[in-house]
Amino acid sequence: MSPAEDVQATETLLARARAAKLGSVAEKILARERLSLDDGLALYRTPDLYTLGALANHVRERLHGDLAYFNVNQHVNYTNHCNKFCAFCSFDRLPGQEGAFWLTPAQAAQKITAQLHEPVTEVHMVAGVWPKIPYAYYLELLRAVKAAKPTIHIKAFTMVEIDQIAKVAKKPVPEVLEELKAAGLGSCPGGGAEIFSERLHKEGYRLKISGQQWLDLAREVHRSGLRSNCTMLHGHIETQEERVDHLDRLRRLQDETGGFQTYIPLSFHPANNEWSHLPGPSALDELREIAVGRLMLDNIAHVKAYWIMLTIPIAQLALSFGADDVDGTVVEEHIYHDAGAKTPQEVQRGELVRWIQDAGRVPVERDTLYNVVWSADETLAQVGQPAPVLR
């Protein structure tokens, strides 16, 4: 796009925003200024989803151009034993209950060995919280997976799991994190945050750590040198104000630590849980959540459209609503499929490349830490270099 065309496009976007009564918000976005909580509420309340999407796409392309990231990964849920009884959860089981499982370290490693013929760079390991799992198990789990494929990056343990691991270890969190790192932990996922609202914590997941505890643990994770993702579970009984507060608290911690690398809005799935009477978010709700997240989280580089929960067509569309990442090949996923997800359990690398290209974006295969593994754009930085963020 020529400079003149760029100016024209910006003026057109600003005119659209003014017509949608988002003019002052758009002016901040174009000036790269931080949005206020009231601005966030205006974004949630506007009926003009397409102008909201255009504003988010402007920021997305300012940061990443036409690049869209994916990785070749697999999921290992090592147990569904859990004593938190969250109202939204369809995954948890008690020991002896139908469908309950707890993998041995050797069984988890076998899942890695079964994919050695694929160019997997990451294993994503999360599970339920069960107090009878000994500390040694977590260390053995990491070591077994790392032994099965020494080059694999282990992204494991939400802040909820880290809290439980430290409790059973009876050691300070920083010491536990150092021992987990020595055993093979490479980074942490972003789950378990839900909504930071204390009202919702009491009503829906009171046995889980609070929002403030989640943030405090994330701070410790980042201080240990580990990167993590961050999430928000939306589409249940939360208010718009609670969503905006959640996003603001994430970006304030990011101001402090810089440790979040990707934000992932997670859609509530209502099947097979206590909140099954709720409708769950629509496709338009999901696109709005992607867009608002991209606009509010000005200090987090990446926003992910997690295809396993969105469906592939919505994830493709989300690449024009603020998202720049679609996750990976996955292989085996229990949490969302137990909640009624109808998406495939896995996809092939070539399928992800084709979906991204069909959406009009340039596919870039990355590792967990956003170093380039491969790109369809031959002008991109050399393989092994950090993925570009244009800002």
Please name the defining characteristics of this protein.
single chain, 391 residues, alpha/beta, four-stranded parallel sheet, 16 helices, 44% helix
Give an overview in words.
- By secondary structure, this protein is of the alpha/beta class.
- 44% of the residues lie in helices and 13% in strands.
- The chain has helices at 3-19, 23-30, 37-45, 49-64, 105-113, 135-148, 159-169, 173-183, 198-204, 211-223, 240-257, 283-296, 307-310, 312-318, 335-338, 349-358, and strands at residues 67-71, 73-76, 122-125, 153-156, 185-187, 228-234, 260-267, 302-303, 325-328, 362-366, 372-375.
- The strands form three sheets. A four-stranded mixed β-sheet has the order 9-1-10-11, covered by helices on one side. Strands 2-3-4-5 form a four-stranded parallel β-sheet. The protein has a three-stranded parallel β-sheet with strand order 6-7-8.
- Strand 10 and strand 11 form a beta hairpin.
- It starts with a helix and ends in a 16-residue tail after the last strand.
- Mean pLDDT is 92; it is low at 333-341.
